[in-house]
Amino acid sequence: MMQTQKEHPIAPFLRMDRIPHIWCPTCGIGTTVKCFCSALSNLKIDLKNVAIVSGIGCTGRVAGYINIDSFHTTHGRAIPFATGLKLANPKLKVIVFSGDGDLIAIGGNHFIHAARRNMDLIIICVNNFIYGMTGGQVAPTTPLTANTSTTPYGNNEKPFNIPHLAASCGATYVARWTALHIRRLTRSMEEVLQRKGFSVIEIVTPCATLYARRNRLGDGLNLMQFYHDNSEIKHGADTKDIDIEFQKKIVVGKFIDEDKPTFLDLINEGLSRKLGEKFIKYA
Amino acid sequence: MAKTELRITGFGGQGVILSAYIIGKAASIFDNKYATMTQSFGPEARGSACSAQLIISEEKILYPYIIKPNIMIAMSQEGYEKYEATMKGEGILIYESNLVKPGKNRTKIKKYCIPSTKIAEDLGRRIIQNIVMLGFFTAVTGLIDYNAMKEAVKTSVPRGTEELNLKAFESGYEYFKKQKK
Amino acid sequence: MKADPIGVLTGSHYLDGDHACAEGAIAAGCRFFAGYPITPSTEVAERISARFPYVGGIFIQMEDELGSMAAILGAAWGGKKAMTVTSGPGFSLMMENIGLGAMTETPCVIANVQRGGPSTGLPTLVGQQDIMQARWGSHGDYEIIAIAPDSPQEAFDFTIKAFNLSEKYRVPTMVMLDECVGHMTERVIIPPAEEIEIEPRRYTKLSPEEYLPYKPCEDLIPEMVKAGDGYNVHITGLTHNEKGYPIINEEVQAVLVKRLVDKINVNAEDIIITEEEEIENAEVIVISYGITSRVARMSIDLARKDGIKVGSMRLITIWPFPEKRVKELAKKVKAFVVPEINAGQLVYEVERCACGNANTYLVPHYGGGVHNPQDIFDKIKEAMK
Ligand code: SF4
Predict the structure, then answer these.
(1) Which candidate, A272, A120, A81, A279, places its Cα nearest to that of C52?
(2) Which domains does chain C have, with CATH numbers?
(3) C246 vs A contacts (CB less than 8 Å)
C-alpha cells in the first residue's frame, strides 16, 4: 500500500515538477529559498503580484524553482531586467535573487545605480564567497587569502563588503544574515516584502563543494557550525566596520532601514510639480 | 529654380541651426516645397564657424548634402572665411555687416549686408539677430514666400516671444526693401 | 487596433530622423524607454524624455547599454511596449541581451543610429557598418528583423512598423537608421491616430492551467502573458521546452532553435518590404538601403540618361533578406550593383543569392559621408560590360 506523504508546507511555492534541484547536498542556497517561501507564506501575499528575477550562477537558478512569475536572465543583468519589469508594472513586488558574483562583479554597476535611485526592488544576494557554477573561481567577495581555482596560492584582492557597498550607494534597507539564521533571515525577508525602496539582504551561505573543500573547511555542516560559533548579531552596526575576513567573526544583523522616496515616487512627484495637470502620472 | 543650396554659418549661440530650421520649415510645411536640412555636429560644430546646410527644391530631394551653395548667410568672420570658397565664386552672399568683412576678390558673388545685431539690440534683444537676418534673407532672395516664413518663425520660437520675433523679422525685411528704394 | 491618439502628434512637422523615430515609437504605443546617451542617437532619447510625461510613458536613462537592453526586456514582460536606442559601441554592448530577447521571444525595438566604426570611429558621421552585426551580433543561432529608413518620414513610419513586427513575431526588431537620416531634418507627416494600424500584443486567452508559454501557434509564434497575470511563467535564456523549463539536451535545442529561425524565415514574405523600380527590362539592378538608396537614385538617373537599362531594388527591411526575390532576379539580369557605406556587408547576401547567375559588384564607402553618385554610376557602367 502506498504511503500518503504529507505535502511539505512550502511545496505550493515551488515548481515541484522541477524537483530535484541542481544544487549540491548541503549547499546553503536551498535554505535561503526555504526562508523566502516561508516569508511569502507567512505574509499570505497574493503571489500573482510577486515576480522574481535571477541572473546566472548557482543562485541564478532560484528563479527556476519558485512557482511565481520568474525570469532567469543574463549574467549580471538581473537588476536592470527587474528595473524594467518593476517600472512597467509598479504593482509587482520584484525580487532579484542572485549570487555575489552576478550582482556585485559583472552586475556591480547596476547594483550601485539601482541603489542610488532607490529603485523599489528587493535584492537577495546569496554570498558564498566563490563562483560556484563555473567551478570555484575567485569572486569579488572572496576573503583575503582564501583559496579558489583562480587563486590557487590564496586570494590577494580585497573583497567587497556588500552591506557597506549597498549602504554607501543609497540602499534604504540593508541586512546581513547567514544561512544558519533562518528565523531572522525569514523575518528580514518579510520586512523587505512589506516595504518600499532598494532593499538588500546579504546571506552568507555555505558552498560545500567548492569553497569549503578548496579551503579544507569540511562540509556544509561544518560551515554552519562555524557560522554558529562566529557570527555576532549587531543591529545598526556601522557597515564600514563589518568586513568579512577569512574564517573570522561575521557581523550580522539589520544595519539600515529607512523610509525614503523611491525612483518612481520622485519621478511622479517631480513631474507633477513641473508639469501640473498635463502630466499623466505613471501607473 | 529647381534646387537651391544654402549655407548658414556663424558662431555658437547665434541661432545658426534655428535659422536654417525656420527656412526649411517655411519651405516644406508652409510653402509646398521640399527642404532637407543637415548640420555639423561635434566639437567642430560648437566653435565660431558652425554651419547648417539646407537644400530647397520643387522636387523630392535625393542627395542630402549641399555641394555648392547658391546662397550663403554669414554671421561670423570665421564662418565666412571657412566656407566662402565652397561658393566657387558664384551666388548670393548675405552677411552681418558689423561682424563680417568679406574679401573683394570674388566679383561674381552678389553681396548683401545688414547690421542685424545692431537692429536686434535696438529692438531690445540681441538674441533675435538671426530672425532679423531671416527677414533680410526673405526680402533679398525671394526664395520663400513671405507669409510662409512668418508662419515658420511664429511656430519655431519660444512661446511668448512670437511678437518680438515677428517684429525682428519685419525689421530685417524692411531694411532691404528700404535700401532698394 | 488603432493607435492611441494621446501619443500621435497628427500634422505636418519639420523633424530630424531621430525625433521622427521617437514620434514613431510613441505613436506605436511605446511607453517604456531605457537608454544611454550616445552620438548620434541621443536625440531620440531626448525627445522621448520630453514627450513621455504627457503620454503616460516612463523614461529611464540607465547606467549603460547592457542595462538599457535588459531593462526593455523586463519592461516588455511587465506589459509595456519598450524601446532602446543606441549607436555603434552601444549596439555592441547590447548584443548579449538582444540574444536573450530572441531566445525568450520578447517583443522590443532597438533603434541603432549607425555611425562610422570600428570602435569609437566616427561618432558624428554616417556609416552603414552594423548591418551584419544586426543580424549576427549575438552568439548562437536566431533571427531578428531589421528595417532601414531613408528619411525622417520613414524613420517615423518604419519605427511604427518595427513595433508592429516585433509584436507580431515576438522578436527584437531593429530600426537601422544612420547618422545622415538621424540628423537630417525634413517634412514628416504624422497621420491621424485612426489611420495608424497597431499590432496588439499576442496575449493568450487560455487559462493558466492550459497555457504553455512556448507552445507555438500555427504561424510558429507562441502566445504571451505578462508578469502579474497569474500564469506563474518561467522565462529563461537557457534552452527550454514549451513549458519554458530549461532542458539541456540536443533534442529540445533542435526544436527550439529551429523554430526561432523558422518563425522569421517561414513568414519572410509577410515581413519583407522592398521597393522595385524598372526591374522588368533591367540589365543591371542596383540594390541599396538606407540613405544610400537616395544617392543611388541619382546614379540610376545618370545611367538611364546614358541609355543603360538599370533597375532599382530598395530594401526597406534588410533582415530577413529578400532571398527568394534576389534569386529570381539573378536569373534575369547581368549584374547587381550594391553600394553600401561599409567595406562590403549586404553585398555578400546578394552574391550568395545570385548563385553565380549574375555578377555582383560592391561600391564600398568607408564611412563619414555618402557615396559620390558618380562612383555608383561608374560601377553600373562597369557591370554592363
Ligand atoms: S557549487 Fe557550491 S554554491 Fe553551487 S550548488 Fe554546489 S554547493 Fe551550492
Answers:
(1) A279
(2) 5-195 (3.40.50.970), 276-384 (3.40.50.920)
(3) 64, 72
